[in-house]
Amino acid sequence: MDTTDEPLDLYDIAVLLNYERATTEPRFRHTKLREVALPGTRPKTVAFKAPNEHEWIDNDCTWVVLDQVPDQSSDRDLFSDFLPEGKKPGGGISEQELETLFYQVRCHDGGYINIGLLQILFNMFPNDTKLKIRHAPKNKSPGESYITSVTKRVIIEEPFMYPKTSMAIAILPENQLLVSGNMPNFETAIMGFGALDDPSDEVKSYLDLSSMQFGDAGRGPGLNGKQLFALDTTAEHQSRVMRTMGGNDPEKTPKTSGAIRGTPYDDWLTEVATRVKKKWDNRHEEHWCGHCGSPDATSKCAGCGQAWYCGKDHQKVAWGFHRGYCNKA
Ligand SMILES: [Zn+2]
Ligand SMILES: [Zn+2]
């Protein structure tokens, strides 16, 4: 099949990038969940001070305590590896909350890592590569979708004040503590896209591959999405900001740029992007789950025969987006 004219699909690419990145994140390789302390509670197994005891801002802090386990020689850390064997981490935490934590940890402070990843991936395609952008459907109306080019992208660095949540991740046995959202200022880096024929370069779509750092408020696409990244229209982006931040930083203005310099993670990100490109190029032969990106996708959408899932659960959570495109060319 000649597929050279098919545009790159930003939604599909985001699902693949999310899987390849999350399951190989160097900062969290071979870690298992030991304990979760939801806002208002403190972990019992570590003795770190709470963020607000450091005179940091007093917002909702989720603690996650991880155990670094000896190298298991697996090439990936899957969600199923994240849970401690034989026991639940307590606190009546649901399966979906555990999934949120798995990705919340891996998206920790991840704005620039993800911008670096997207940049490396897009640079692997020729400049005249078409890009299809699909937004989530709203109520009865279909989602907005359009074709643009991979070059119609911009990096947006947005300064905000008072993030509504913070996250403290303790990694044992080395007692490493990673905290984000604890300062009054918070800057995000996300990628924006515009229409092909618009000389004003107005941003119409906002992709944040690290939106899960805000927990469930980071799920998308669209504001009621259940998936693992944000792909928002301008209105959705503004509402998401209101959900996660106290407001814009009046002292600073957003910055846009065409490219960022490399990150310390570029070797790893290049491997991630290379695997994603290979899967994309091979998309008609091998499928992946339209929610989690797992290659173990055996369940096909009966409506269109075009979407695949690792099982009924992920088919269900992806339906809020897919219903807008099922049976559509
Ligand atoms: Zn799945
Ligand atoms: Zn379908």
Automatic annotation (TrEMBL):
Record InterPro entries: Znf_MYND (IPR002893)
Cross-referenced PROSITE patterns: ZF_MYND_2
Pfam families (UniProt xref): zf-MYND
Domain (MYND-type): residue spans on this chain: 289-326
Residue stretches spanning the membrane: none
Key words of the record: Metal-binding, Zinc, Zinc-finger
Zinc-finger as UniProt keyword: yes
Single GO MF descriptor: zinc ion binding
Protein name as it appears in the record: MYND-type domain-containing protein
Organism: Ophiobolus disseminans
Species classification: Eukaryota, Fungi, Dikarya, Ascomycota, Pezizomycotina
